[in-house]
Structure formats: structure tokens, C-alpha cells
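Troubleshooting entry. Yesterday's outputs looked truncated, so today I'm pasting the complete records for two proteins to confirm everything comes through intact. If either block looks cut off, that's the bug. Protein one:
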Amino acid sequence: MFLAEHTQENVLYLKFSGITRLHHSTIEAVKEEVVLHMKNCCKTIFIDLANIHFIDAKSFEDLASLVMAVKEEGISLTLCNVSDETFDLISLMQLGDVLVSSGHPYEVVIQASAN
């Protein structure tokens, strides 16, 4: 489903494997992993959405909940390798400050709240 790894201290990198659509159960598993790492002083999270082309409505609610939780904890969250379809949905939902790199794929950066 997804792979979690620490790339360096206080950084979590999540990548999905073998799926192209995010559903509620997948986001719930991601939320559990993120909460676990938040307790271990993780300050930066990257979620790689390469090959993800669809996120259902309930998953967007869950993703918005995750965004709020990490912001409140002072954690920066970046959605990497966002497809055109997913980028359009994230923009429509206004989940974060959208930064477009030079070309595709997109990155969506959600800044941590100032503490």
C-alpha cells in the first residue's frame, strides 16, 4: 500500500506502491503513520503522490484533517509528484499554499503554523 522511511532525522517520506487511487482506508493508514512519527518529533513530512490520479471525496476530507493536524503541531507537509488531476482537486479544495515547480509534476506545500 505505502512505504514509510526516514530520509534523515525528523523527516518522514511516504510513498505509495501499486495503487493509482487513494481511498479512505489508505488515508487512514497514512494518518496513523504520521501520528506515530509526530510523537517522535518528526518536523517535516513528504508524501509522494506519484502515480496517484484519483482521490475520493472521503479521502479529501481525511487529507484536510491530516493537514490541519500537522499544521497545529508545527510540522511542514509537502505533497510531491502531484498529477494534473490531483493538483486540480487539491487547488479546488484549497488545502494549502500551492507552489508550482518548473513544469510537472506539481508540489503542494502546506506550511506549519507559527508557534
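Protein two, checking that the full record survives here as well:
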Amino acid sequence: MMKLKPSLRSLVKAGLKILPLVLFLSACNSSVTPSFVKEDITRAIKDICKKEYQLEVVTNLVGGTLWVYMPLENIVSRPEKPEKYTERFLLEDKENSLEEKILKVNYLVRTTPEKEKQQEMALDKSVNEKIFNILQVIRRVLFSMGASPQEIPQFFCIVTADIRNGFEIKQIFYFSDLKKLSYSFISQTEYQHRILQETAILAAIIGDREGRHLNWRDITFEEFLADQIRNRIKLKFQKPEVEANADIDKEVLKIVTYTLGAYQFKNFDLVELTNLATDKKIILNQTAILANSKE
């Protein structure tokens, strides 16, 4: 079994606290002349990354999902000024699902005596810059595609791998969200809440410059929506964004109704909320969820 370095353990435990501020974009430089077709975008992104930013990446297009794999070494470091935060809740990450028109949301959140903590490790500044550059390239290529909206990848996934230490960060973006950010329809903060981020420590990552350990696949919108709710729960209680006396069930319900409303998603019949700390289950139909979103 692979032994984890203490610094990597703390990063995985911290979860989304390592989310880099990487995407401050404006709409002013979008090309209006089609420059790329679907068949060319993986090669174009790889070539531009290498030519303009000296970045070696692996690209793959699976269905409507574009993947970019960036192998690096030693991607985390100790920040000069560690970010301080208040711990009020203990959270265990649980998976959600949206299948057969039933959205199942599972969460395990407990209050804990409040204490101030600080983040001892963070993404190295140079790695943030590399991710930013890749995002700029993806945006430039996707915004310049001479194709119908159905031809443009709806999701893109950037995997930043530390192939020396066996650690990676996977970030999944929704193209429609990128457009809304670019034209200032949503804020930078809201956009970051919409990014899916996962961290992993695997022996298979070590030395893997081609992304052989990855499950290259097409991401569905239902999967994206369920996982975004999962990430929003982590953000709300890890930061935290609420006081210690908050009603956890109500806060999770707010997240669910807000997320479904933000995407105007109505292709569901039921929402099942399961509080794994109390074994309390709340089941609401679509009418009740939509009514709640208007409150």
C-alpha cells in the first residue's frame, strides 16, 4: 500500500480549500471568426499549450467531454501566508446520484467545537499559472469553433497530476458556465461554486505522463448536477459559510433548490435528502422543490 506524505494527507482532507483562483476572464477577446472544427480541437489545444506556454499536455475528446491531462512534479508547497479558517463542522464526503428522475442527496455533517485552523499546504503559484494558461487555451479554441452548439464539447476536464508524489487534482467545467462567466452573467465566486473538483492519491499516478490511469469518459449532465450539489455542501460546511447553530437539513435543501434552479433543471420527479448523521430522510416531489426555490 502506498504511504501518504503528511502534506498530501492534509490536502486531501482539506478538500476544496485548495481550489485555485484561476479564471479571471473577460469576453472582449473572443473570436467571431470560426477557426476550429471538432476533429481538430484536441490537436489544437495540445499544440497551442506547447508553442505558447511550453506545456506538455495530453488531450482526448470522449463524446461531449474534452479532457486535458497535465503531468507535473511537486505541485504543492507551503504558502508564505497560510490561509486561516474557522472549523465549525466535521464533514464526511458522500456521493449523490441522479438516476431514473430521482435525485438522491446524502450528507454527513456534525458540529464540532469551534477552532481556528490554517492551511499548511497549497497549490504552488506556478501550477496555478499553468492551469490558468490551459483554461485560456481551451476557452480560445472552444469560442472559435465553427460548429453548431451540439458539436462543441459541453464539459471539459483538466487533470493536474503530480507524477513524482502520486497526487492529482481533477477539475470539471461546464462550457455553458464558462460562457456565462465570460459575459459577466455570473460572478467569479458563483463560477467557482460550479466547478467540480476532486483530489486523489494513487500509486498509478507516479511516472504516468500519458494519463494511462485515467478513466477517459463522457460526463453526463445528470452526473455533473449531482456532483455539484455534493461540492456545494462541502464548500458550505468546510469554509464554513454558515454559523454553528445552522439547521443542516435546511441548508442542504437550500443548496439543492438553488442548484436545480440555477440550471433550470426540471427533469426529475423526486428529491431524497438523507442526513446520515441523524438518519433523517426528507422526500420532496418536483412541485415542492420548485415552490421552495421561489421562497
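Both blocks look complete. Sanity check on protein two: Residues 125-142 form the longest helix (18 residues).
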